[in-house]
């Protein structure tokens, strides 16, 4: 399993298993067990997913030493602020049946995320979290957070896939050694990613599927990916990406697929809508 070193010196797997939208807790638990048995060692969840307990049960049943598993979770919008984040974090630990997290993220750049970051810095310094980061932070919010606090986020989890390559944001993150973590690495199937002719042609050279080409591309741009599937065959297929390397020509061809915009979540539009909503509430 390829590892990526974060800006605080710790390493994390570049390929993990995500559990977003696995609402059936029995199915979620089995999916995590299947992933761990396949060889995955990074599991990504979040408080708002409602399945942290299933993730914790699977890890406990797996028989794998806790220190060999890298667990990532997130604090949701309603729990931003110092005290709320502290309480949410403890609930997450209880759900996951652990006494520390490997990575804890602010889920969205809304609410009192300054208060959340203060809490997360304190938890990090107390040894309760090995690394802290954010999700969906665009350049303005990311730079603002960096300038306001002592600890630079180790990770920014963003929509990142072959159709939304986020070059400007990734360039900024490279400057601060912030690792990109790709949610929706398959673009949720948009643009027919699983049958895309360009990805299929590239994959045919290596006996790989478009999904595997997409994950390998993320690995070669030094991003972390957390694909989700509840099907064992697909879980195993997604894991089998370390036995081939995309050529420079392949990488250049994939670069042409970039639409230059997010396909799933337009964070900038959502930020403005959130701001206007709060203004109307105050008025």
UniProtKB/TrEMBL annotation:
Residues 31-257 form the NADP-dependent oxidoreductase domain. The record marks 74 as: Lowers pKa of active site Tyr. Pfam families: Aldo_ket_red. GO terms for molecular function: oxidoreductase activity, acting on the CH-OH group of donors, NAD or NADP as acceptor. Keywords: NADP, Oxidoreductase. Substrate binds at residue 107. PROSITE patterns: ALDOKETO_REDUCTASE_1, ALDOKETO_REDUCTASE_2, ALDOKETO_REDUCTASE_3. CDD domains: AKR_AKR5F1. Belongs to the aldo/keto reductase family. This is Oxidoreductase, aldo keto reductase family protein. It comes from Secundilactobacillus similis DSM 23365 = JCM 2765.
């Amino acid at each position: 399993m390829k590892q990526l070193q974060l800006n605080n010196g710790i390493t994390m797997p570049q390929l993990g298993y995500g559990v977003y939208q696995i609402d059936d807790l029995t199915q979620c638990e089995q999916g995590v067990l299947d992933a761990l048995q396949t060889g995955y060692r990074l599991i990504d969840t979040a408080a708002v997913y409602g399945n942290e307990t299933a993730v914790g049960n699977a890890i406990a049943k797996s028989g794998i030493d806790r220190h060999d598993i890298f667990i990532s979770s997130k604090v949701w919008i309603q729990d931003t602020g110092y005290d709320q984040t502290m309480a949410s974090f403890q609930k997450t630990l209880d759900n996951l049946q652990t006494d520390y997290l490997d990575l804890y993220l602010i889920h969205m750049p809304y609410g009192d995320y300054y208060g959340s970051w203060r809490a997360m810095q304190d938890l990090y310094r107390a040894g309760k979290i090995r690394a802290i980061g954010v999700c969906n932070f665009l350049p303005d919010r990311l730079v603002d957070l960096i300038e306001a606090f002592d600890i630079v986020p180790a990770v920014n989890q963003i929509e990142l896939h072959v159709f939304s390559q986020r070059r400007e944001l990734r360039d900024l993150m490279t400057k601060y050694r912030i690792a990109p973590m790709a949610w929706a690495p398959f673009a949720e199937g948009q643009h027919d990613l699983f049958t895309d002719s360009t990805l299929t042609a590239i994959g045919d050279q290596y006996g790989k599927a478009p999904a595997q080409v997409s994950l390998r591309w993320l690995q070669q741009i030094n991003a972390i990916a957390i694909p989700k599937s509840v099907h064992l065959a697909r879980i195993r297929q997604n894991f089998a990406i370390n036995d081939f390397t995309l050529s420079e020509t392949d990488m250049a061809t994939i670069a042409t697929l970039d639409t230059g915009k997010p396909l799933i979540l337009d964070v900038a539009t959502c930020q403005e809508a959130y701001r206007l909503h709060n203004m109307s509430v105050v008025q």
